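Researcher: I'm comparing several assemblies side by side, and this is the next one on my list. It has 515 residues spread over two chains. Same procedure as the others: predict the full complex and return the structure.
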Amino acid sequence: MLEPRIEEFLRSRVPAAEGLAVSALHRIPGGASRETWSFDATWRENGGSVVSRGFILRRDPDASLLESDRDLEFRVMAAARAAGVPVPEMYWLEQDVSWLDRPFFVMERIDGCETSPTKVLMDPRLFAHREKIAQQFVAILARIHNLDWRALDLEFLGVPADESACAIKELDKWEEVVDREALEPQPVLRAAFRWMRRHSPRPAERIVLVHADYRTGNFLCDAEGTIQGILDWEMAHLGDPLDDLGFTVIRPWRWLGNELMCGLMERDDFIRRYEAASGLSVDAESLRFWEVLGNVKLAAIFLTGARSFCEGRTRSPMMAFLGRNVSRLELEIMDLMGV
Amino acid sequence: MKPNGLEALRAIQATLVETLMPELQSMFAQDSAQTIAMLVESLAAEWDAAAADLHTDNEAIRGVLAAAASALLALPGRNENRDALVIDVDGVMREAGDGSGAVSSLSAENDRLRLVLEHLLSFIEDTSGELDSEGLDETRRAAYRHLRQVATRGWCFWDVASFRERMVQARAETQT
């Protein structure tokens, strides 16, 4: 019953559209923090030719892995696109729940692309392009970190007091999530927070826009191995560039089961390429801190989903399932802590 | 003889994967069904040994806490955090389970013990390098050894993907 309501919304936003029709509406798997829907829309403008476009609608879920601000994601994606980062075009942000029961935004659908790590890394067509994908993967991350976030009006994300405040700000944020969401004792996560407070990283080389979920699975890749869009900016913030790197290198994203970061390249290779592309340096001990935090962060996200499930705010099997998968992250955290 | 819980879970899983999933048209429905199949796999992996594992874990944590109590009491000087921790350890060690052997009861006992283990590890990490105590160092090693065994247990979807090689190594480590 969503189709007619989306049609009504589009009519309000494209008043010149005549005979507007929405079709092929279907929900896309993934995107556990928001519902993701794909649909086609056709209309005629000013009695002229028929316009046909594909759209993606991201709607707040009944319960989520992460309570995130759709306004933030919309604005950051629009800003990144304006600055030349490959990001789908952002069309409308709607906070009025009368349209579709919950807030949502609508963006461009980029067709002919894969996002699934299995497809991106193992599809024979894309396998031949892995080096090209790896090169762009690093270059785009470096480009994001070199954006002038002040010029893009991204101060609303919250500017850390200074370069040395980035780590503590993130640490406090994620410890608060664990405090709020954990339903049972978490000895490993608690010990990790203590360990991190005693192993502070170097101050950030400079404060940058951090995507915060930069990995294989969060970009659109076409059949020629060109990255057409970076997705899932809902955790974006201003902080240390190593914050991004630390999350990118965590084991869960080493999809091939070996030591290739994001299934694309060796760790040293990733760091060397990143340093060359960004002009920033990567301190190995600081990166270890951020990698511990990356694993803790993912565990905290899973705990959030588990609480939503256990408190009956969602029946999503994904929330129940992910909530049962914190143990492997604990193993990784203990490895990184060297205990 | 009747099908036991594990056999019933396997039947649910097989029907889901072999009969229902091929009939599902939408990608989202297929993805949800696959998630349910993995959730069932995760339940099946712990089904038979759930009570035994919890019992073993509770005994292991009691062992760690008992050693910790001695090490904490042997520390020189007075320290509020240490004293509070000793009281916590003492309290939880006095509490016995209800002896029912029910998973819910063992699990509740496990939560109580893990909460004190959490406090203990926080104390140890906070004071790391400051206290010259072989007893606490050994307690720390024993606590993490136990937590590693627990973290390696069961089935996780990453075991067949990103953690594939790591889990082979981890399981070999816990067996030695």
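Model: For your comparison table: The radius of gyration of chain A is 21 Å.
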